[in-house]
Amino acid sequence: MTLLYRTVITTIGPDVADLAEGGVVILFAEGAPPELAEVAVLHRAEGEVGAAPRPGDVLRIGGREFSITAIGETAWKKVADMGHVVFNFSGVVSPDRPGEICLEATEGADVLPLLVPGAAIEILARA
Q: Based on the structure, what is the number of domains in the chain?
């Protein structure tokens, strides 16, 4: 697999657990305004942003892999421009919002323990 994006979690906002239980994880780069940081996983990107992922590519959080099912039309530009993305673990193949990356259906209780400071988040293209 080819690495398209790698970032490391630095801080978990106090409201992240509630959103993750509903299948949504919001990322913002460090330095996000406090009102956004409350609901977000803050992170620090490492390296350059590669080509946009496609359905079938992989999101890896803390070593666990999730298949990407859909990508909103503005999602990858937001990742590149401001380190912001919404991960939706619903399994849908057509995003509800242009800024989200949809992933295989996964219970929030399975995602939440992966969201810890120091954990890597990677997006990889399948060969």
A: 1
